[in-house]
């Protein structure tokens, strides 16, 4: 009850005081306390009583990158420190790898028998992190990962400001099957919300203990981090993704089996604040609870924050599972920190007004070891982070301090049980075809207000990552936060793999492509999206997965399962099929080839360039990056105040932070767009509080329009992609280059999903065009 009351008060105080500014006297923080060496025997005794005699930890200067995930990209090069062992009986510290005292250690893991340590280490400022192993007595040091064979080529091709190397291998952990999981930039993708293209994506990989058989476990377009092992043998990790939602919020907790199968949300995919959950670990003795650090996204913040506990038995799509251990620190903003001062939350970017924490390790639900900066020091002070013992009420006790350097990542040096090896049964024939199977038991579960029989199909979609190979070296193609223009409010390119039928009982059984970022749209008889899944799953080759319905939560039970076998399971799995009018299931989303022809045929007569009806011009006249028609549709509203594209702000990816809470069926997309109502001659009513009146007026004004089914599907398909303009990341897009052979090319599906520059475009990226003067963009 105390937790619930606290959270209620926290929300009220947050709303009232989140933007209160810190008094200047506190910003200056006079009288910063002097750092001293400390070993607190009383704090050590608390751990000794738990059977912990030694801790492994890292000494290093504070990493001071500007984003929660970018420590390997743009932290200032400050070499020094080591991988250390603290004896809790004597307070003595020994270095495990004394020969590595001129580089930087980042994170590590201890073997199940507590005899070996895996760690990532960066030897110099112009090299990447690599993974090593050493015995706990300091012997047997060996390097496990090495630069790629093409490392110098990557450096020459993709050299970035403050990022002087090709690839990084980070955050290793031991797996119960004898392998190693880690995160790596070997996926060679760039962060989507990064117009300057300074940040790279790192995703989960695995390999054998000797570094062989390296393979990606995830194909996320953006970054993942900090894997740990759960008691059931699954990997718990931080995953950042923004599929049809704001780019800054959804850095949440997911889990997967060691082979990458069974990917599932643990908590936070619709959590607006705190934006970032990272460094999560299962709590011993509390199998349904995890401890995590909550941080802001950036500017400044390099993964410092507040300690929280998440109870996964509660509704994971709400704040209900979340409780604060350190109640005086919070992350209520896209950047900086919040401190509770004299009963009010104060937003601050220095970190000085209060403590900041990192790397909470749970001994129990009421006892943790953490790295912590005391009040009075800036968030990036090189020496200010020490080891502390933290109780369940957030009370901290210093354990060990080295005044010359910071201390990080405390981890008890004790043996632990080897979790079971969690594996999914894989279908070898499916795996050979790089396919997986999906079973939806009842699509109507989680879609209140949708009448049974409404959903006829599922559309199989993917958000694809932006490969390094698509990096442009010419000015002009950036749009919003996107390095290569995709569309207004769009950062990640979407493609689709066709549709599959849904049975009358709401069930579906079908094949999907493996190792892709797959999500679904539930379609009605008009091929319009009733609901869109704003996340994605990486299905592994040969995997069979099942879900109950839309927006399910743990413990949900489909109605159909209580009575009979789902109808879809009484037949072989469906293979994706094309929509009417499409020649094949696979399809790109391309405004110019799929939507503009419909406008040209049916709309420009009244909405041309000369005195257009309602001031709406729908010609394909090119603007700097798009067309007049596209920009007016994306940015405009009709005379009744309804956006032409419908409600799409909740799906706008081109924002640092926004509300990403769950949206129910019919909330956005084609059902909320007047365009669909017009093209259907009112057969599809507008989902709007004044929809009946608006529909009547729109139909009366456009009664002569008659489109084919193919034309209608092309347009609503585009609306349900939330307005994507370009089909891929490839090609030159700014009008200043309109005489270039690579200007706004028509791109095939195979080219759009290719992580390497297609042969047709290879010369563009090896021999970029000379720069031209780009005039200041005119807004329509």
What secondary-structure arrangement, pairings included, does this model have?
Layout: H1 2-17, H2 24-28, E1 38-39, H3 41-48, E2 54-60, H4 71-74, E3 82-87, E4 93-95, E5 104-110, E6 116-122, E7 130-135, E8 142-143, H5 151-158, E9 169-174, E10 180-184, E11 189-190, E12 203-207, E13 215-216, E14 224-229, E15 235-240, E16 251-256, E17 264-267, E18 276-283, E19 286-295, E20 306-311, E21 322-324, E22 329-330, E23 337-341, E24 344-348, E25 356-364, E26 367-373, E27 386-391, E28 396-401, E29 406-412, H6 428-432, E30 435-440, E31 457-464, E32 466-467, E33 493-501, E34 508-513, E35 517-523, E36 529-532, E37 537-538, E38 544-547, E39 587-588, H7 591-594, H8 596-602, H9 628-635, H10 674-679, H11 691-701, H12 709-719, H13 749-753, H14 762-766
Parallel strand pairs: 30-38
Antiparallel strand pairs: 1-28, 2-3, 2-29, 3-4, 5-6, 6-7, 7-8, 9-10, 10-12, 11-32, 12-13, 14-15, 15-16, 16-17, 18-19, 19-20, 20-21, 22-23, 23-24, 25-26, 26-27, 27-28, 30-34, 31-33, 31-35, 33-39, 35-36, 35-37
Structure description:
The protein is α+β, with helices and mostly antiparallel strands. It has 14 helices and 39 strands. Strands 31, 33, 35, 36, 37 and 39 form a six-stranded antiparallel beta sheet that branches. Strands 1-28-27-26-25 form a five-stranded antiparallel beta sheet. β14 (224-229) and β15 form a beta hairpin. The protein starts with a helix and ends in a 14-residue tail after the last helix. Residues 1-30 have low confidence and may be disordered.
């Amino acid at each position: 009850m105390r937790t619930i009351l606290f959270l209620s008060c926290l929300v009220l105080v947050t709303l009232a005081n989140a933007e209160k500014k810190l008094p200047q006297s506190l910003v200056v923080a006079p009288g910063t306390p002097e750092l001293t060496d400390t070993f607190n025997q009383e704090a050590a005794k608390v751990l000794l009583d738990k059977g912990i005699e030694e801790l492994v930890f890292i000494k290093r200067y504070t990493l001071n990158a500007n984003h929660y995930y970018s420590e390997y990209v743009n932290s200032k090069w400050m070499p020094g420190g080591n991988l250390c062992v603290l004896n809790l009986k004597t307070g003595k510290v020994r270095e495990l790898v004394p020969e590595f005292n001129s580089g930087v250690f980042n994170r590590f893991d201890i073997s199940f028998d507590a005899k070996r340590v895996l760690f990532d280490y960066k030897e110099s400022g112009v090299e990447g992190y690599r993974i090593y192993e050493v015995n706990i007595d300091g012997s047997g040091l060996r390097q496990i990962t090495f630069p790629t064979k093409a490392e110098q080529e990557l450096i020459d091709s993709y050299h970035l400001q403050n990022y002087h190397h090709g690839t990084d291998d980070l955050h290793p952990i031991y797996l119960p099957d004898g392998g190693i999981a880690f995160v790596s930039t070997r996926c060679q993708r760039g962060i989507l919300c990064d117009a300057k293209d300074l940040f790279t994506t790192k995703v989960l990989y695995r390999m054998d203990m000797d570094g062989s058989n390296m393979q990606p476990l995830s194909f996320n377009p953006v970054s993942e981090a900090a894997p740990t092992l759960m008691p059931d043998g699954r990997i718990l990790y931080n995953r950042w993704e923004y599929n049809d939602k704001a780019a800054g919020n959804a850095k949440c907790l997911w889990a997967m089996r060691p082979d990458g199968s069974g990917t599932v949300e643990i908590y936070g995919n619709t959590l607006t604040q705190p934006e970032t959950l990272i460094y999560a670990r299962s709590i011993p003795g509390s199998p349904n609870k995890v401890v995590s650090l909550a941080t802001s996204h950036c500017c400044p913040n390099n993964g410092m924050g507040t300690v929280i506990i998440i109870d996964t038995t509660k509704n994971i799509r709400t704040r209900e599972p979340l409780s604060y251990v350190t109640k005086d620190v919070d992350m209520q903003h896209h950047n900086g920190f919040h401190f509770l001062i004299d009963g009010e939350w104060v937003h601050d970017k220095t970190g000085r007004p209060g403590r900041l924490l990192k790397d909470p390790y749970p001994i129990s639900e009421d006892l943790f070891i953490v790295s912590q900066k005391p009040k009075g020091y800036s968030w990036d002070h090189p020496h200010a982070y020490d080891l502390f013992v933290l109780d369940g009420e957030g009370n901290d006790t210093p354990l060990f301090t080295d005044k010359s350097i910071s201390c990080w990542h405390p981890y008890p040096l004790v043996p632990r049980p080897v979790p079971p090896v969690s594996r999914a049964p894989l279908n070898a024939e499916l795996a050979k075809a790089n396919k997986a199977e999906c079973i939806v038991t009842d699509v109507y579960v989680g879609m209140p207000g949708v009448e049974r029989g409404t959903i006829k199909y599922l559309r199989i979609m993917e958000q694809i990552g932006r490969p390094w190979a698509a990096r442009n070296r010419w000015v002009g193609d950036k749009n919003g936060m996107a390095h290569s223009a995709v569309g207004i409010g769009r950062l990640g390119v979407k493609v689709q793999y066709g549709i599959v039928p849904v049975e009358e009982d709401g069930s579906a059984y079908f094949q999907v492509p493996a190792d892709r970022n797959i999500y679904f749209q539930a379609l009605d008889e008009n091929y319009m999206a009733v609901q869109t899944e704003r996340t994605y799953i990486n299905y592994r080759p040969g995997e069979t997965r099942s879900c109950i319905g839309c927006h399910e939560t743990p413990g949900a039970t489909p109605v159909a399962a209580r009575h009979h076998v789902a109808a879809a399971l009484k037949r072989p799995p469906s293979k994706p099929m094309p929509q009417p009018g499409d020649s094949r299931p696979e399809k790109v989303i391309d405004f110019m080839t799929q939507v503009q022809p419909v406008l040209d045929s049916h709309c420009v007569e009244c909405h041309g360039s000369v005195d257009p009806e309602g001031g709406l011009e729908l010609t394909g006249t090119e603007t700097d990056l798009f067309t007049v028609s596209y920009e007016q549709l994306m940015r405009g509203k009709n005379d009744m105040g309804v956006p032409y594209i419908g409600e799409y702000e909740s799906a706008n990816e081109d924002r640092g932070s926004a509300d990403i809470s769950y949206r129910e069926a019919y909330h956005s997309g084609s059902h909320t767009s007047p365009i669909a109502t017009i093209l259907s001659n009112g057969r599809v009513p507008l989902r709007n509080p004044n929809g009946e009146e608006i529909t009547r007026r729109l139909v009366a004004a456009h009664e002569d329009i008659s489109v084919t089914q193919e034309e209608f599907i092309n347009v609503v398909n585009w609306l349900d992609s939330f307005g994507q303009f370009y089909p891929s990341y490839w090609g030159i897009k700014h009008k200043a280059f309109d005489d270039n052979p690579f200007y706004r090319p028509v791109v095939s599906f195979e080219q759009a999903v290719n992580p390497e520059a297609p042969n047709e475009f290879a010369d563009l990226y090896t021999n970029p065009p000379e720069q031209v003067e780009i005039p200041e963009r005119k807004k329509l």
